[in-house]
Amino acid sequence: MSPTFQSLSIRNYRLWFIGGMVSNIGTWAGRVGQDWLVLTELTPHSATALGIVTGLQFLPILLLAPWAGAMADRFDKRTMLILTQAGLLLTTLVLGLLAITGTAVLWHVYVIATLQGILTAVDNPTRQAFVPELVGREHLPNAVGLNSASFNLGRLVGPGLAGVVIAVWGTGQALLLNSVSFVFILGALAMLRRADLRPSPRLTGRGGIRAGLAYVNGRRDLKLIMGLIFVLGTFGMNFQITTALMATQAFHKGAGEYGLLGSVMAVGSLTAALRTAGRKEPRLWIMLAALGGFAVSSTAAALAPNYVAFAVLLVPVGFTALTAMTVANTLVQTRVDPVMRGRVMALYMAIFVGGTPIGAPVIGWIGEVAGPRWTILVGSIAVLLTLAVVSHHLLREENVHVTWDAANRPHFNVHTTPRVTPLEEPMPESAR
């Protein structure tokens, strides 16, 4: 089997991948449906309301991360995922029925978004920590890449499907489509062979939250990665807002064209995920290069003169963003102790998406004050400035030097020789 798809040879992971892929398609269809419901049916194209909904979905991830991570390390992950996925199915079903019956009002969306945020806060670290139990350490980088591919295949198909469903039947039907998709991931979880799982050591005793925070605080490499991913997630990854505003306000398009933008962007994201899945080990320099590419391509997209040019430029935006995110995720997962994985991944997800309650309302406000193009430019500038600061730090403190190797790929080799004080530990070479 091709190295890109080697994890699919494992039965449990294959079931997980298929169920997750269908669920991801439904999730993206549901996101488009929810955004369209708020933007066009419940408000007069209010970017602020859309930003609030997005913020409410992600705020619990920020607030509950320490406890959610400890739960992922303490309890059976499969059982927890069944509970969280069932809860998400119920909330999406309620919202879909409210939309179909014409009884939905804005506060309904706010409440459901908050409930989904609470469930997602527990689901995300558990899902991340569950993957090593499906495939083991040897296949983990490949599985993380394939999970990203599944996610972005959903992004590729889901928005376009939602656009068609909204145009033909209505917004509520797109939301119900998301509800049905949860049945597939629940079915996959039910069919897993327990005997083939590779359970991680369980957290016992007290002090788990403090131990997790102390562990991350003592790892310079993890803090650097999380700092970069925080800026990208807070200011750069607000495409549910930025593409909606660009489609409706900058280019005066409808639901179909808006949904198509998500699918076009996913072409680049899916390509990046498959490329990453084929790599044996992640490298920090790949993440830094991807962030630089993101800043450049998103700036170009913000300045696009028309809808077609904007859509085309979303391909490299999706490619660079997903490369940075997948490499960061793999670096963190492969460099932590198994007993700490749930807590570390909870903190990682909190930092990555937990900034959205801050970023999303701000981005929405900027869209109303300065126009839709600035909602993208703000993210580009933030990522570029952060990348410059981090690069300067690495060049100064880690003594980074680059060599050229014409005989092997990649031709560029990045080496570091950190300056170590008596109170510091150097960044592990394997994590760079």
Q: Would you kindly provide a brief summary of this structure?
A:
The chain is an all-alpha fold. It has 15 helices and two strands.
Any overview of this molecule?
With 432 residues, this protein is mainly alpha-helical. The chain has a single domain, classed as MFS general substrate transporter like domains (Growth Hormone, Chain: A), CATH 1.20.1250. Helix content is 76%, strand content 2%. The chain has 15 helices and two strands. The chain has a two-stranded antiparallel ribbon with strand order 1-2. Strand 1 and strand 2 form a beta hairpin. Helix 8 runs parallel beside helix 13, helix 9 packs antiparallel against helix 15 (372-397) and helix 14 packs across helix 15 (372-397). The radius of gyration is 21 Å and the shape is globular. The two termini are 28 Å apart. Mean pLDDT is 82; it is low at 420-432.
Series of secondary-structure elements, N-terminal to C-terminal: HHHHHHHHHHHHHHHEE
**What CATH first level would be assigned?**
Mainly Alpha
Give the name of the CATH superfamily.
Answer: MFS general substrate transporter like domains
CATH topology: Growth Hormone, Chain: A
Biggest sheet record = 2 strands, antiparallel
Mean pLDDT: 82
How many discrete structural domains?
1
Rg for CA atoms:
21 Å
CATH architecture: Up-down Bundle
| Low-pLDDT runs | 420-432
The helix content is over 70%
**How many DSSP E strands?**
2
- Widest beta sheet: strand line-up: 1-2
- Kindly, what is the distance between the CA atoms of the first and last residues, rounded to a whole number of angstroms? 28 Å
Q: Shape from CA axes? A: globular
The number of distinct helices, counting runs of at least 4 residues, comes to: 15
Structural class of the helices, strands and pairings? Answer: mainly alpha
Q: Please report which band the strand proportion falls in: under 5%, 5-15%, 15-25%, 25-35%, 35-45% or over 45%.
A: under 5%
